[in-house]
TrEMBL record:
<keyword id="KW-0378">Hydrolase</keyword>
<protein>
    <submittedName>
        <fullName>Class A beta-lactamase-related serine hydrolase</fullName>
    </submittedName>
</protein>
<dbReference type="Pfam" id="PF00144">
    <property type="entry name" value="Beta-lactamase"/>
</dbReference>
<feature type="domain" description="Beta-lactamase-related">
    <location>
        <begin position="6"/>
        <end position="286"/>
    </location>
</feature>
<dbReference type="InterPro" id="IPR012338">
    <property type="entry name" value="Beta-lactam/transpept-like"/>
</dbReference>
<dbReference type="InterPro" id="IPR001466">
    <property type="entry name" value="Beta-lactam-related"/>
</dbReference>
<dbReference type="GO" id="GO:0016787">
    <property type="term" value="F:hydrolase activity"/>
</dbReference>
<dbReference type="InterPro" id="IPR050789">
    <property type="entry name" value="Diverse_Enzym_Activities"/>
</dbReference>
Length: 303
């Protein structure tokens, strides 16, 4: 449904990338590391200049690497997601970190966290002394000529977006009330599916001088723990993506996204195939549906 009931979707429609936006954050982070401008093993509190005492002393142990790999200690299933409220404290009030409590010790396990990526964005802003949206534009988009990728604005649906289809069990007011200005590191970017694919090609596939990352940067962005079973779906996550491979197929690296009125999925295969899938709706039980989409895309890539 493009602009209203009965109007078809088009590949020219602007789609919300949702959590595919995190790939921009992780790719930018790796690029800065390869440029010698960032160190993944730096402590978050040092980068953000957040001094103790800390309500949870383990906060002082969190590294930038752990933020990207979702192992920093934040678990939204236990303590909620502070990014899904109208006025999140991150990234504008980093001092609040000193009052925060972790759900597990840093490095102990994986737990998907929007807050972790928001804090990574705040760290990038502090290191580079520039707004994250400007950093992403200058470092990733301008060099590739993909200036059509822009953040969603608070309370605004662009004229080139398809109409968002909100499930009756979910509320549009919740979606419309999100602070997208605080979500540039986590889920605010938009553009066509084709342009996202073109950007991923520059990050993962292209040869110099057209590539955004060198081979070591690509390795950093895609590697997962050596002992992780990549035959398990949604199981092995590195600094930017999940990795998955069936016994008789290629490895893929993937990320998905979901919010009211939107679903997104991206995969790049080790043989260079790239698939970007985006929709203007979702179901409340979105995780198994996204998993089905991902497995179907893997089947397509295998052929």
């Amino acid at each position: 449904d493009g602009g209203g009931l009965g109007k078809p979707m088009s590949v020219q429609h602007r789609m919300r990338y949702l959590s595919l936006s995190k790939v921009l954050t992780s790719a930018l982070s790796v690029k800065l590391v390869r440029d010698g401008r960032l160190n993944f093993d730096d402590r978050l509190v040092d980068v953000l200049h957040v001094n103790g005492p800390y309500a949870d002393p383990r906060i002082a142990q969190v590294t930038l690497r752990q933020l990207l790999s979702h192992t920093a200690g934040f678990d939204r299933l236990k303590s909620g997601d502070p990014m899904m409220v109208p006025a999140p404290w991150c990234p504008k009030r980093p001092a609040q970190l000193a009052e925060s409590r972790l759900d597990f010790s840093p490095g102990d396990r994986f737990a998907y966290s929007n807050l972790g990526y928001c804090l990574m964005g705040a760290a990038l802003e502090r290191v580079e002394e520039r707004a994250l949206a400007s950093l992403i534009t200058d470092e990733l988009l301008q060099p590739t000529g993909l200036m059509g990728l822009v953040p969603v604005k608070n309370g605004v649906q662009q004229s080139d977006e398809p109409r968002l289809q909100i499930h009756p069990a979910e509320l549009f007011d919740v979606l419309n009330g999100l602070d997208y200005d605080s979500m540039h590191a986590t889920g605010a970017w938009s553009g066509t599916a084709a342009d996202f694919g073109r950007l991923m090609e520059k990050i993962f596939i292209s040869s110099p001088p057209d590539s955004l990352l060198d081979p070591e940067g690509r390795r950093l962005l895609t590697e997962v723990a050596e002992d992780c079973d990549i035959a398990k779906w949604r199981h092995c996550h590195g600094l930017g993506l999940y990795r998955y491979r069936e016994e008789d197929g290629p490895a893929i690296y993937w990320r998905d996204g979901s919010l009211q009125g939107g679903t997104a999925f991206f995969a790049v295969a080790e043989d260079g195939q790239i698939v970007v899938w985006a929709a203007n709706s979702r179901q409340p039980n979105w995780i198994p549906i996204n998993d089905s989409i991902g497995r179907a895309i893997y089947g397509y890539i295998k052929k």
